[in-house]
Design goal:
- This protein is of the alpha+beta class.
- It contains six helices and 15 strands.
- The chain has two domains: 123 residues, no CATH class; 137 residues, no CATH class.
- A four-stranded mixed beta sheet has the order 4-5-6-7, with no helix packed on it.
- A hairpin with a 2-residue loop joins β10 and β11.
């Protein structure tokens, strides 16, 4: 009987030890270092246990890890050979990384994958919410000639090789320009842009359906878009301020706001023009936070 009890006791100790080890292992792998799968061109990751404790220590350690070869030979490191980080700085919740001019040689999907792996890795660090890329002290310009601006982990879709169909709701002007009309559209993405960016660019490009009219002036460019804590920050160039003469202020503004708030995780929209908040938008203060406005939708009249 005593022998049976000893065996049961030993078994319970082994079981508890095993459970404890499993919890320890999970807690150790709270961070991931992201890499590029050389076969599928997808973003992948490996668990990582850092030595650093502070935000500054973790940033330095993670930047070093991103320049090291991964243990899996199929994976490629985020920052390719020849590309050098000249310096970086942390200001509040923003990390700015300054690369040398070799970074400019990265083009297309390889550049986006590089950017995605770096941003997704670094935005895990508590206190780092935004990452900005500079090249030789100048803002990084993407393949479309647009500044990449502030980026968050949510800016990138995990698997950039998989083309995905996504249904979005867009709002354009009615014939008289005083109300919005709703339409749905299927858009495709491959992870090179955020859904917010695709939605805004759909609005910039204008409607394709009969009975719908443009709400954004020709020449308007999206400089940057990011979402944090339910607020979508939309940075447009100065062309947006010109506004189409045949639509109201509300239609111009809420065409973008109501379209974005249809997306999960977005409750409000903050506009910026060339990186700055601007109050004067004809008869409307553009510097305030905008929420969904159903009264300007034609369906609610």
């Amino acid at each position: 009987m005593k022998r049976v009890l000893r065996i049961l006791l030993l078994f319970m100790i082994l079981l508890l030890t095993s459970c404890s080890n499993n919890k320890a292992d999970k807690s150790k792998n709270e961070y991931q270092i992201y890499y590029i799968d050389s076969i599928s061109s997808a973003i992948v990751s490996e668990g990582y246990t850092p030595l650093g404790k502070t935000k500054e220590q973790l940033v330095a350690e993670f930047l070093g890890a991103l320049q090291m070869d991964p243990s899996n030979v199929v994976y490629k490191k985020a920052i390719p050979e020849g590309v050098t980080i000249m310096n970086y700085k942390i200001v509040d919740d923003q990390l700015t990384i300054n690369f040398d001019t070799k970074y400019s040689e990265l083009k297309g999907i390889p550049e986006v994958l590089c950017r995605a792996t770096i941003v997704k890795t670094l935005c895990q660090i508590p206190g780092i919410d935004f990452v900005l890329f500079n090249v030789n002290d100048q803002p990084l310009i993407d393949s479309n000639g647009v500044q990449t601006g502030l980026m968050t982990a949510e800016f990138f879709i995990e698997n950039t090789s998989a083309e995905t169909n996504y249904k979005v709701t867009l709002y354009f002007a009615n014939e008289t320009g005083d109300l919005l009309k709703k339409t749905t559209r299927n858009i495709y993405y491959t992870g090179t842009s955020s859904i917010e960016e695709l939605v805004i660019n759909q609005l910039i490009n204008g409607p394709t359906e009969r009975g719908l009219y443009a709400t954004v002036p020709e020449g308007t460019t999206l400089l940057n878009v990011s979402t944090k804590e339910g607020i979508c920050y939309v940075d447009l160039n100065e062309k947006f301020i010109e506004k189409l003469t045949d639509i109201t202020d509300e239609v111009a503004i809420y065409s973008i706001v109501n379209s974005l708030v249809e997306l999960p995780g977005i409750n409000k929209v903050q506009f910026r023009i060339n990186g700055e908040t601007v109050e004067a938008f004809h008869n409307t203060n553009l510097a305030v936070l905008f929420e969904r406005n159903l009264t300007v939708n034609e369906d609610n009249q």
